[in-house]
Amino acid sequence: MTGRQLEHLRLVQQQTDGAKIRVGEINGLMGTAIIKSIDNHQAVLNLTLNIKPPAPLPLTLVMAMPRPKMLRRCLQTMSSMGVKDIYLINSSRVEKSFWQTPLLEKQVVENELILGLEQSRDTILPTVTQKKLFKPFVEDELADIIGESTALVGHPQGSETCPINIQQPTTLVIGPEGGFIPYEIEKLQEVAVKAVTIGPRVLRVETAIPALISRLFPS
Question: Which of 19, 95, 153, 206 fits as disulfide partner to 15, beta carbons 3.0 to 4.6 Å?
Answer without folding.
Answer: 19
